[in-house]
Amino acid sequence: MIKISLPISKSIANRYLVRCAILNEKLPDFDENWSDDIKSMYHLLTSKNELINVGAAGTAFRFGIAFWSAKKGVNKIITGDDSLIKRPIDPLINSLREMGADIIKMDNGSFKISGKKLSGGKVRVDSSFSSQFESALILIEPLLSSRLMVSRKGFAVSYPYIEMTRLICKRPLKWPPESDWSNAWIWICRSIITKQEFLLEGLNKKTPQGDSICMKWSNFFGFEVQENKLGIQVNQKPSKYKEVKIDFLLCPDLVQVSIAMAILLKIKFSCSGLRTLVHKETNRFEALINALKILEIEVFDLKVNESFSFDASNWAPNKETCRVSSLGDHRMAFFWAIIGLKQPIRIDYPETVSKSYPSFWNQWDSIVNRLN
Asked: Are the CB atoms for 78 and 108 separated by under 8 Å?
């Protein structure tokens, strides 16, 4: 049994940090081992500078704009890298302005904020692009003049994250948070492919993390999880499924690794609910289609930016090393890490995993593959 120490959940950690700042409670001490996203959130909340650059941290960008908009008398300019400031955020800006926020979009895509007491009350938000728009509003409710009543426009993607936010706002704050389930899925997939048994520390089945939905896919892919006082133990069990269909609208962070595993398991795989992938660190929908082409796997039932299928039953790795790129996206790096269990690869920009999992490659490469 191989023990894996996972990073703390950045989704929970980021909400916790914002909650602490809003309630004027002491933030936990800064830790260099945090993921880049958590570090960005910490710096955003504690910075004394007027200009704050959050880099590629979309959560810090969205939550930060909401947070500083509701801080009376504070002037800030929130910016990020080129790809971040091009991602959709207008629905959040519109909702904040509806409550009286003084926010000006600058020519370079940054936002100039003059913080003030916001009204609260009834406000509409379009959650069809990101659940974080609604979560950002929920988090700042203690700073508003009246109780927040959100009227949701459109279907909320990644809805479990909104429920996570509500839960964190109701519970007493506790640090450190549990380990990250999206990162756990990478190791569960490795266990399925390599038949290695892992103990994933710091996880539990009763979790607010939406990505724990992967436990429900155990029959599809052939695994089981057992909980003990240290975490989750991953074991194998037979699977008779040769065709799997999954809608990822509620859990888009699990897409890449799931597709990589389906390839190595040589099954027919259909995935839908992918419309949020186009607005991530890279266009993940396009990146996945291109990755399948690189692996010479035909794509069918293609509905652009929504769904596609493929049949990997005849796929076989070749002996030559395949040079690929993470495209600066940590989840595409994880995709290629899984593929690399069978296909020799060389990944350009592997360091991008630090966004969510800084120790990933050290852990991944230190464990000897025992492939059947």
From this structure: no
- 3-state per-residue secondary structure call for 115-172: CCCCCCEEEEEECCCCCHHHHHHHHCHHHCCCCEEEEEECCCCCHHHHHHHHHHHHCC
Reduce the secondary structure of 316-362 to three states and give it as a string. Answer: CCCCCCEEEECCCCHHHHHHHHHHCCCCCEEEECHHHHHHCCCCHHH
Residues 42-85: pLDDT tens digits?
999 999 999 999 999 999 999 999 999 999 999 999 999 998 99
Give the integer Cα–Cα distance in Å for 214 and 72. 42
Active site residues per annotation = 253
The stretches in the chain having pLDDT less than 50 are: 369-372
pLDDT at 368: 53
pLDDT tens for residues 111-164? 999 999 999 999 999 888 889 999 999 999 999 999 999 988 877 788 899 999
What count of other Cβ atoms lies within 10 Å of the Cβ of residue 204? 15
Q: Using an 8 Å Cβ cutoff, are 229 and 223 in contact?
A: no
Q: How far apart, in whole angstroms, are the C-alpha atoms of residue 46 and residue 21?
A: 9
- Check residue 372 and give its pLDDT: 38
User: Residue 312 gets which letter from DSSP?
Assistant: -
Give 309: exposed, middle or buried? Use CB within 10 Å, 0-12, 13-18, 19+: middle
Helices 58-69/10-22 angle, 10° precision:
10
Residue 140 φ/ψ, nearest 5 degrees: -90, 5
**In DSSP terms, which residues pair with 270 in a beta bridge?**
245, 309
